[in-house]
Amino acid sequence: MVALRYRYQTAEIGKRDIHYRCLRDKTQFDDLHGEAESIGISSASWPLFGLVWQSGEILAELMTDYRIDGLRVLEIGCGVGLASLVLNERHADISATDVHPSAGDYLQHNTQLNNGRHIPFFRTAWEDDQSEEFGQFDLIIGSDLLYERPHSKSLSMFIQHFAKPKSEIIIVEAGRGYRKNFIFRMESLGFEANQMPFSDFESNSDKFKGKILQFKRNM
What we know:
Elements: E1 6-13, E2 16-23, H1 35-38, H2 54-62, E3 72-76, H3 82-89, E4 93-98, H4 103-113, E5 121-123, E6 137-143, H5 151-162, E7 163-173, H6 179-188, E8 192-196, E9 211-218
Parallel strand pairs: 3-4, 3-6, 4-5, 6-7
Antiparallel strand pairs: 1-2, 7-9, 8-9
């Protein structure tokens, strides 16, 4: 198997320089022991976690000054962890999760590149039976998570498990067509849905076809 090729990048996000390692391109693949394949991650989709997409850049920019004081935060589908790294620089109480078996190692590597504190990580699929050991969170964030129609249900139920009764959710969705169904499911769980503007973000937001979805619940 050919060795993976990487890019080392520095993203200027707000007033912070965030250093990270990502995959060089979408042709990279390394699943020697079949761990990814065993959980349904194909060779074509394997590298997607290791690239930084526009929706992830927008989420990271949003987190540069988002209110986090006293909040416990979870990033879903963290990939290389760009938004988590921004929050870690701000000394947030940040944890992260992803289904990909390599995501935790990439997050740890990138945290070390920034001389940051350890970011707690747990690997799970949204459909898995979830443990209670990780507790619940005040703020849950994620980007480009709705790839297929069934994801609206599985993601909303995953959020339901990990969100405190009073909580806020920020999802930067990439315009793949499943937004309305996801909003419907979140509203059925007691969340009020809103759409946030993104015209002030630097990541070519004028060309971004998705939306920033904000959900709030106060039970």
